[in-house]
Each structure stands twice: as structure tokens, then as C-alpha cells.
Design the sequence.
């Protein structure tokens, strides 16, 4: 179970002040201005007026590669992965809780591209970030310029399963950006409704983490039917039969807000949870999923930066920072 990724980071200087109505969710603004800039430098049909609703060259257009659904391998079209494939982009948004940016302020944001990336796409992404200064940002006509843009680490880094020695018995999962994790319930009238997970069980956490990782590894790396799927089934069976073996303590707060898609005149309702979840028990089988989720995010709308997690592991209550060995990044 692994996938490839390439990280970029851009440091911006604020030339004209602006504010964000929802400081915990800046991904919408960043995604919008980056999409405009990519359309300017990478759209293969710009001279033809662009693409009306969806990219018509997703196989070669950098904009389509990041913003449209990726191609799905034959045989998976009618599966969960085929019907709702993860986007190749993940925004790494700046610090939370900050809504006002004054002139001469600096902030840094990042972009993670899943799957194999070519040199031409990297060059277009770099040019797009440099063009962001031509567009207003925020709700008050702000302006920014790129002070520094860089690739973080090599291209096409490969994640691998960490090896912990000794196996962790404690873990703290911090949701750095709102995680849109839901559970589905069936009402008495047979209608299915979805609820935001505010106090997830260990099985619900595992389902959320494994669902995202299965999709990402299948499309942008490798997920083996023999080995990876077998391990998933064993873990799920254990958690369904003996959930009490892992204690879960949650301190999560729900957030709900609207995202305005100005270009299309639409408003979308979004939600997620922020905070921490602490686990105690035999976490050895789960450690792989928890660790890799730090690269893949968890839940819905990861392309906007939602579901970013940080995980710390410990072998005992007094050792909260156990590091995995053998990471090939």
C-alpha cells in the first residue's frame, strides 16, 4: 500500500490587505485563484474560448489533471472509487484562526499533487503560482505576490509502510483542518441520512481513514488485492468484534459554513470537525493507516485542504513521540 506525491510551497507577500470570512477554511480562495492562474498558463484550449463546463483534454492539460476527476482503471467504473475518485490535488492551507492579512504580511501555502508528475506539469504549476498576483484575493480586493516558490523534496516521492519498534499503544490524531467525516443512518421511513462524526468510534475512524487511503493508493500508487486487502479485512473484523480493545477519547468541535462559487453563482454547504482524538490500545495494525493519512488527508473535499491530520505515536503514556523507522520518502 503506497502512493506517489510531489509537494510545492509558496510564500506570499501581501500588497493589498484582505480578510477571510472563515479563517479555518482558506482552501476555497486558494483553489479559486490557482485554478484561474492555471487556466491562463496551462489551458490547451484557451485560444478556443476554453472549456465550457469540463476539461476536454484531461490527459495532457495541467488544469484538467488537477481539477478534474482522474481516469479510473478498467473494471472500477461502477465501484466506490470509480464513482467518486479523489482529485490529484491537495491544498496545504496556511495557519488556522487567522482572518485578517495586512499590507507587508507574509503567509505560506502548499500544494500536494498525487500520482506521477512530469516536468512540464511542474513548470506550469510554477508559472501559475507566479500569476496569482494578477488576481484579487479575499473578500475585499486584496493583492498578493509570490516571494518564493519551491518544490519540497524530490518529485514523485513514494510513501511506504512504516515499521514501529516497539508497536505503538498510544496515538493522538489532530485534525489540523476541518475533517468532513460522516456516518450514514437509515430512518424509520427508509430514507438514508448522513451525520457529521463528532464522536467517532474506533471502527468509524478506521473506515474513514481506510476508505480514503484505498482510493488514493489504487489510483496513484499500488493497493494489492492480496496483502493490503487481506490486512484491511483482518483489522475490520477485529474492530467489529472487539472494539473495546482500543479506547477512544474525542475532543472535537463541529464547524459548518458556506462556500460561494462566484464564477457559477452557486453556494455550497460545507462542514467538518476540528480537534483531537486520542487512542489507547494495541495500535500496531492501525499505525500504517494513521501514518499514511498524514499524506493523503481524510474525509471529503481534500482537494480544498480539508481533512489534514497530524498523528503522534507513543509506546507508553509517558512517551508521546514514538517515531517510525524505515520510511522511504
Sequence:
Amino acid at each position: 500500500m503506497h502512493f506517489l506525491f510531489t509537494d510545492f510551497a509558496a510564500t506570499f507577500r501581501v500588497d493589498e490587505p484582505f480578510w477571510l470570512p472563515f479563517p479555518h477554511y482558506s482552501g476555497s480562495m486558494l483553489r479559486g485563484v490557482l485554478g484561474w492562474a492555471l487556466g491562463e498558463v496551462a489551458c490547451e484550449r484557451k485560444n478556443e474560448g476554453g472549456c465550457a463546463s469540463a476539461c476536454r483534454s484531461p490527459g495532457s492539460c495541467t488544469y484538467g489533471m488537477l481539477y478534474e476527476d482522474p481516469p479510473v482503471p478498467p473494471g472500477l467504473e461502477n465501484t466506490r472509487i470509480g464513482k467518486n475518485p479523489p482529485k490529484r490535488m491537495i491544498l496545504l492551507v496556511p495557519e488556522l484562526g487567522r482572518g485578517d492579512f495586512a499590507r507587508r504580511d507574509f503567509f505560506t501555502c502548499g500544494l500536494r499533487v498525487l500520482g506521477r508528475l512530469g516536468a512540464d506539469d511542474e513548470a506550469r504549476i510554477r508559472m501559475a503560482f507566479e500569476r496569482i498576483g494578477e488576481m484579487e484575493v479575499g473578500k475585499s480586493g486584496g493583492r498578493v505576490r509570490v516571494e518564493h516558490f519551491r518544490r519540497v523534496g524530490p518529485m514523485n516521492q513514494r510513501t511506504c509502510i512504516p515499521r514501529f519498534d516497539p508497536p505503538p499503544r498510544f496515538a493522538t490524531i489532530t485534525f489540523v483542518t476541518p475533517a468532513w467525516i460522516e456516518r450514514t443512518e437509515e430512518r424509520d421511513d427508509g430514507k438514508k441520512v448522513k451525520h457529521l462524526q463528532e464522536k467517532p468510534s474506533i471502527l468509524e475512524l478506521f473506515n474513514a481513514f481506510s476508505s480514503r487511503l484505498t482510493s488514493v493508493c489504487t489510483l496513484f500508487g499500488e493497493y494489492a488485492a492480496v496483502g493490503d486487502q487481506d490486512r484491511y479485512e483482518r483489522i475490520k473484523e477485529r474492530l467489529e468484534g472487539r472494539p473495546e480493545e482500543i479506547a477512544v477519547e474525542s475532543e472535537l468541535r463541529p464547524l459548518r459554513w458556506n462556500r460561494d462559487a462566484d464564477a457559477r453563482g452557486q453556494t455550497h454547504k460545507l462542514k467538518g470537525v476540528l480537534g483531537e482524538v486520542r487512542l489507547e490500545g494495541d495500535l500496531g495494525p492501525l499505525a500504517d493507516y494513521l501514518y499514511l493519512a498524514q499524506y493523503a488527508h481524510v474525509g471529503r473535499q481534500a482537494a480544498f485542504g480539508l481533512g489534514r491530520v497530524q498523528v503522534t505515536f507513543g509506546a507508553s503514556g509517558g512517551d508521546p513521540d514514538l517515531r517510525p523507522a524505515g520510511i522511504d520518502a
Q: What stands out?
A: Residues 226 and 232 are 10 Å apart (CA to CA). Helices lie at 27-42, 62-67, 80-83, 119-131, 202-220, 228-241, 284-296. Residues 202-220 form the longest helix (19 residues). The chain has two domains: 2-156, 170-314.
